[in-house]
Amino acid sequence: MLYLVRHAHASGGSPDSGRPLSADGLAQVRRLAVILRQGGAFAPEEIWHSTLLRARQTAELLASEMGLKAPLREISGLEPDAPPGEVIPRLKAGRSVALVGHNPHLTLLGTALVTGSPSPGAFVLRKGSVLALEPSRGEYPGDWVVSWHLAPDFSE
Question: Which of 32, 43, 51, 69 has the fewest CB atoms within 10 Å, counting from its CB?
């Protein structure tokens, strides 16, 4: 299973890479953890997050709140404008990974995995949402299907 997790609400400021989660964002992650824990369908073996602070904080807090033992790894290629093709070769069928990142990257990545092409975007990933994908025929673009999509009514 592959989980695409968009970071929670972040504070404004500069530089963009150092923007932390806001108080609302912290509350979003805690609420998301409760929902995911109750559902029992979120079980990554690893959690990869982008190099930006708000994604790392989302990953750390989500793992902590859920009591996950999955290792966290900072991975380049998950930044907002990174091409989705950068991370696709690292994904392996049968390995459960959560990618905590940003839009438009996550929308383009999810679309590429499901349709074979990154555009036009097929999903709306609001802050604090999760899109779960599973490989249906293989591990290449166009071989994945949507298992579930959690888009809680969080304020952005």
Answer: 69
Q: Edge-to-edge, what's the strand order for the sheet holding 97-101?
A: 72-74, 46-49, 97-101, 2-6, 130-135, 144-150
| Choices 3.10.580.10, 2.102.10.10, 2.60.40.1120, 3.40.50.1240: CATH for 2-150 | 3.40.50.1240
CA distance linking residue 131 with residue 122, whole number of Å: 12
Please answer whether residues 42 and 54 qualify as being in contact, where contact means their C-beta atoms are separated by less than 8 angstroms. no
Selection from 15, 90, 106 nearest residue 58 by Cα: 106
Question: Each residue of 56-112: pLDDT tens digit?
Answer: 999 999 999 999 999 999 999 999 999 998 999 998 767 899 999 999 999 999 999
Over the Cα atoms of the chain, what is R_g?
Answer: 14
Please give the biggest Cα pair distance in the chain: 43
0.85 exceeded by pTM: yes
102-118 as b/e, with b when 16 or more CB fall inside 10 Å? bbbbbbbbbbbbbeeeb
Q: How far apart are CA 65 and CA 87, in angstroms?
A: 27
